[in-house]
Structure formats: structure tokens, C-alpha cells
Amino acid sequence: MNCEQIGELLPDYLQGELRGEKKEFVELHLAQCAECRDEVAVWKKLALLPMEQPSAESRLRFEAMLHAYQEGRERTSAGFAREQHAARWSFWQWLRTPVGAVAWSAALLLIGIFAGNYFGNRAARPTPGQDEMAQMHQELTNMRQLVVLSLLTQQSASERLQGVSWSRGEAQLDPQVTAALLHTLRYDGNVDVRLAALDALSRHASQPQVRSGVLDALQQDQSPLVQVALIDQLVEWRDREATQHLRNFEQTPNLNPAVKQRAEWAVSKLN
Amino acid sequence: MLDVRNGAGERLGVLFDRYQAPLYNFYAKLTGDRTLSEDLVQEVFLRILKYSRSYQPGTPFRAWIYQIARNARVDHYRKTPKHITFEPEMAPPVKPKDAAQESQETELLHRALMGMPEEKREILILSRFQELKYEEIARLLGCELGTVKTRIHRAIQELRQIFRQLESGAAGSAAAAPAQALPPRRAGT
């Protein structure tokens, strides 16, 4: 055997994983070849390098980091509950903003129209008709959607988050709101807003554009957190059609290994 | 690990005690920078907290943690462009006089290791000091088992070459000016 052939066996030999004939070949070669023998000697010498030990402060830093992380999480979850509680309060403040003013004016106009119709028709029809109530309901829904759409285009991430959470109340999403939420999911610069948009969309899997929008977002999003959430969503929907997309996605160059693993797991789940 | 996944951050302490030394050793040997190595170890555990949901129960935890460790280092260098670092204090502690020869060898080995291209150094460290099996390294680097063995062999060849060159250089300069043979260094901190 020449040096090249021995070289193939050498790594296993060095780990003590070579047995029988192969081991004898290597040892025979080493007895004759000074260069290969020296390679083995240098490998063994590496044991002289001591294990580097971290300093004692390392543990303290870790504890401080853990503490800060847990505190941050508690604050975030408490803050989220508080935010939801305060949402009604901030509504009054929100009415002062330009978007609020538009919505407010629209609401006044609707009340005017409703009152006009109601009192105008009273003479002809003693009780308000059911169709008018339905119309009124529709108008209010539209207004709510208008507010969602306005909020989603705001500069501040917290206002956009509020817009997303308003849309959660809808049993059926207006196509325009769906499109706005999908746009938010794909292009919003804030990870939290994108995650909230995904959550709001998760209940509307029956709409085909929601599913395809989530797949598009997966191809585009760079944040591992959002990528994992998108993958999990596809698994939750049991979207078998997504399998091929996920396979392609796994091949994305420079993909975060944790995300790649998640995608592999998702493919195995969906099959 | 399941506990960490379920959000029990305190359990992370157990993992920290088990893995901080091997991870630190990995980074220190790879980068030659103690401070950076400690920072990176902290970063790894922060990432474990943040991304614990991405760990799949039943898969080897060691492979997962090394994957995070490699990514943390790559991300660090992406943010902070790399510059060559060699801290004198990274050299092994001074040994007693009767071990003088061994001490010099250790120092030369350390220098030879740092003189290798990073990819080769990494695979040598993973296989020699981190006690990872070749199969685990293959999974970690995303290549075939055969490729790992070939790369390890090439790395050993190169290490040998650099080490022997340094050795002959050190012997030459030692003969000429014994006091200048080794750079000044502090005892290990």
C-alpha cells in the first residue's frame, strides 16, 4: 500500500477504530515510511495542548444573561396583557391621530346616513327593516376594515401590531384586508408584526391566497424566527401541497441549520 | 433538553455546566482569542434559549449545540471583520524546567495550529479535542463521511509540515540567539 491508500485509513487508525487486516497494513506501512509515521507522531503530540478553561466569571455572566432573559420575557408577556387591556383606553387617544380622525368622521357620516334613513323612512315604515340593519352592520364592518388597513400602513410598529390585532376579530376577512395582512407578512420590517400577521392569517387557511402567501413569505423571509413560525404553520394546516415547496426551501443556500432541520422535520410530518 | 424546549430556562444551567468548557476550548483553539471565546460561549447559550423550539426531541443534542456554535462564530465575523489575533497569553502555561523541551514543543504545536487555514484547523479541533465522531462532524459540516476523513488527513499533513518547519526555524534561531528563540509570554491566566 502506498501513502495515499494509507492516508484513507489513517483517520480511522488514529481514532483506534481500525481492526484486523487493515490495521496491520497501516502498521506495516508506518514501520517503513518515515513521513506517515511522523504524521501519526504529530497527531499524538496534539495531546500536549492543554484544554482551555473558561474563567470563573463565565458562569456569573451566564446567570446574569439568564436572569435578564427571563425578566425580559415576563415583562413582554405582562406588557402584552397590559397592552390588550389598555387597547380600549388608547382607542380614545388614537381618535386624535389623523387616521383616527378619518375613521371618526366616517363613523359620524355613517351615523348621519343611518339616522337620516331611519327617521326618513319612519313615516313610510313604522319599524326599521331588517335589511337596513344588515346594511348598517356591513357599513360598520367596512369601517373596521378601513381602520385595519389604515393602521397597517402606519410608521410605528406598535400601531401596525394594533392593526393586526384588530383584524383578528373578523370571522371572514375582506379580500382587501387579507391582501394587506399578506403584504405585512411579506414586507413588514418588524419581526413581531410579521409574526402577529401570520397568527391573524392562521385562522383563514381556507382562503387559497393565504396558503400561497405563506409559502411566498417562506421563500423570502430572512429571519429564522419567522421562518420557523411559517414552517410550523404549514404543518399545523397539514398542507400537503407545501411538501415540495419545503423541499426546495431546504436547498436554499446559507439557510440557518436550525431552520433547515425544522423544514426537514416538517416534510417528514407532512408525508 | 426537552425542559429547555418547554421554556424551563433554569435547566439551561445544567447544560451550561456540561458544555461551557468544551465549547470554550473549541472557540479558544479556533480563534486564539480568549475574550471572544467567552463572548461566543454566552452567545451560544442565549441562542439555545431563543431558538429552543427549533430543537427536535430525539435528535443528538451535541450536534445541535455545535451547529449553533459554528453559526454564532460565522455571524460574529460577519458583523466584525476578522483580523489576525494571536495573544501571547494563549500560549500554554510555562512548565517546570525539566519539562522545558515539552513546553517548547507545545508552543510550536500551538503556533503551527494557528498557522493553518481556518477550515483545516476547525476539522482538526473537532476531531482531536472535541471528541466528535467522524459521522457527527460529517453531519455538522454537511458533507460525506469519506470527505471528512480525507480532509482530516490533509489537515494532519499540513500541520506536520508547518510544525516541522517551525521546529527547524526555532532550532536554528536557538543556536544563533537562545534568548530570542521564543516570543515573550505570560503564564496562563
Q: Strands, helices and their partners?
A:
The complex is a heterodimer of chains A (271) and B (189).
Chain A: H1 3-14, H2 20-32, H3 34-45, H4 57-94, H5 98-122, H6 130-152, H7 157-167, H8 175-187, H9 191-201, H10 208-220, H11 224-236, H12 242-250, H13 257-270
Chain B: H1 2-5, H2 12-31, H3 34-50, H4 61-79, H5 100-114, H6 118-128, H7 134-141, H8 145-176
Helix pairs in contact in B: 2-3, 3-4, 4-7, 5-8, 6-8, 7-8
Task: Report what the structure shows.
The complex is a heterodimer of chains A (271) and B (189). Among the domains of chain A are: 3-45, no CATH class; 85-169, no CATH class. Chain A has helices spanning 3-14, 20-32, 34-45, 57-94, 98-122, 130-152, 157-167, 175-187, 191-201, 208-220, 224-236, 242-250, 257-270. Chain A has 13 helices and no strands. Chain A is an all-alpha fold. Chain A is elongated and about 110 Å long. Chain B is mostly helical. Helices cover 67% and strands 0% of the residues of chain B. Chain B contains 8 helices and no strands. In chain B, α3 (34-50) packs across α4 (61-79). Mean pLDDT of chain B is 80; it is low at 93-97 and 177-189. Chains A and B meet through α1, α3, α4, α11 and α13 of A and α2, α3, α4, α5 and α6 of B.
